[in-house]
Sequence to fold (625 residues):
Amino acid sequence: MKRLLLFVVLACVSWSSLPQTPSKTKEDTLKNSDREAIPGVEDTLQQYKNFKKTIQLSQKNKDFQTLGEAYIGLAKWHEDHTVLDSSIVYLKKAISVYEKQKMTKQLADTYLLLVMNYSGTAEYDKGSEAVYKALALYEKTGDQRGIGQCYTKICDLLYYSDSYAEGAEYCQKAIAIQEKNGYEEDLALSYRRLAENQLFLGNLDESLASMNTAINTYKKMGETGPPLLACYNGRGNIYKYMERYEEAIADYNRCYEGAKAIGLERYMMPPTANIGHVYILQGKYAEALPYNLRAIEIMKRLGNTKNLWENYMHVSNIYSELGDYKNALEYHELYEQGHTEYLNTIIARKDSELQVKYETAQKDMEIMDKEAKIAQQRKTQTLYIVLAGMLAIILFGMFFTLRNIRKKRKALATLNAELDAKNKQNELLLKEIHHRVKNNLEMVKSLIALQSAKLEDGASKEAMLASQNRVQSMGIIHQKLYQGENLGSIEMKNYFMNLSEGILDTFNAEEKVKIECAMDNLNLDVDTAVPIGLIVNELLTNALKYAFPEGEKGKINISLKQENERLFLKVSDNGIGKTKDSKPQGTGFGTQLIQLLTQQLNGTITEEHINGTTVFFNFKNFKIA
Fold:
C-alpha cells in the first residue's frame, strides 16, 4: 500500500515538490543475465577476430551449425563488454540461420538468450515477444526443460510489469516441472524469481523461505558465482523489509565481495545501491549518499540503466533531507525522465499483449465460422428426412445465426474503433517521444558547447566540436521523425541538406564551401539513416577541416542511391586531396567511427584522391522505408 501511495504522489508532483522514499524498489533485486561468465581469453580482441574468422569459414563451407554458434559466441562477447545492442544484433543473425535451416531446438534456445539481452536493455515488450516464441517452439517439441525455463523468464518479465501475483504463478508452474524432472540449476533460479515476486506481494516469510531454498540448492551444486551472489542480494532485500538491517547489510556485503573477487563489476552495483537504501530507511542520509551515487556511476558506465531512475529518486530524497534542494531538484528531474521511459516500456508490452489477444480472438471467430458451416450442412441433411418438422427449426436457426452475426459485426466494429483510437494515441505518444529526444539532444549539444568554451587546448576544442556535430546529426533525424507523416522513415536528401547547413554554420564556412546533394528523394528506415547520417557528418567535418586550407573555396558533393539490393553512398570534394606519404591528421577517432558504422551496415569503403578526395560506400544491410 505504501508503494502504491508513493507512485500516486509522484504522478502529481510539481517542480517545487520532491519524491518521497518508497518502501520497496526494484533496484533491490539483482537483474543481470543469468548466463554470466568470465572471458577466458586475455586478448579479447583476438577472441573477437577468431569469431569473425569462424563466421567467414562457416558461410563459405555452409556449416550452419557452426555459423549459428559463432554468432552466439560473438553476441556473448559483446554482452561481456556491455554492448547489449550489438549482442542483440548477432543473436538475431543466429536466429535467422536457425529459422532458415529449421533447427528448432537451437532456435528456441537463442530466443531465450535474446530475452535476457532485452531484459538488460529494459525492452520488456520485445523480451515478451521473444519468450513466447521460444515457449511455442518448446511446446511443439515437448521440451520440458525449455518450457520450465520460459515460465521462469515470463515470471521475471511480469515482475518488471508489476504483475507480481501472475509472475508468482508462472514461477510455481516452472518449479513443478523442474522438481519432477530434477533440473536443479533451473529450479534454484525459479525459487529466486518466486521469492522476488513474493516480496512485492508482501509475503515476507514465504519470500525468505523461497530464497533460502534457492541458496541451499546452489550451494548443493557447488555454485559460488553470479547465481549465488544474486541470491545473497535478494535475501538482503527480504531482510531489509523485515527490518533486520544488520543481516541485510551482511548479505549485501557477501554479494559485493564475491563479485569483486571474480571481477564482475555489474554485480557490485545492486548491493552498493541497496546498502544506501538501508541507510535511507534508518534515516542515515549522509551515510547513504556515497553508496547511491556510486551505484549510479556504475550503472551509467556499464550501460545497465533499467533501474537508474529509482536511484535518481533515492539521491533526490537524500539531498532533500540534507537540505541541498538544488541537487535534489536536479536528480528529481532525472528521475521523472527515467520513470517516464520505464512506463513507456510497460505500455508497449501491454500493447503487444493486446495484439496477441486480438489475433487469438480472430482465430476463434474463424473456428466458430467453420463450426457453423458444419452445423448448417447437418441441418440440410436432416431437412431431406423430416421436411415439415425441421423447417421451423431451420428457420429459427437461421434467424438466431443472423442475429449473432449482427452482434459480432457490431462488436467487431466497436473493437476496430477502439484500436484506431489506440493507434492514434500511440502515434501522438511516439511523436512526443521523438520531440523530447530531439530537445534533449539539443540540450546535450548546448552543454558540450558551454564546456568547450572553457577549454584552451585546441585538440580538446576540436574533439568537443566533433561531438556537437554528431549529436546534431542524430537530433536532426529525430526532428524529421516527429515532423514527418511516417514515424519510421527519413527522407535522406532533405536530411543531408539540413545536416550540411548545420555543419557549415558550425565552421563558419557558408561563404567558402558549397555543399550539393545530387540525388533523388530516398526514404530510409531510421535504423539505417542514423549510421549513414553519422558517416556523412564525419566526412563533411573532415573535408571542412583539412580539404580547404587557408580560406580556399571549394565544393563538396553528396549522393545516395539504391541499385538492386545495394545502397551506394558517395562523398567527394575538390580540395587539396591527400598525398601518398602524408600522415593522417587528427586523432583518428572519426575514421574508426566510420569503419564501425560501415561494418554495422555490412558495407565496404573505397577512396580516390584525384582532383580532391572521393569516398565510396557500398552497403548490403539496409532498410528502405
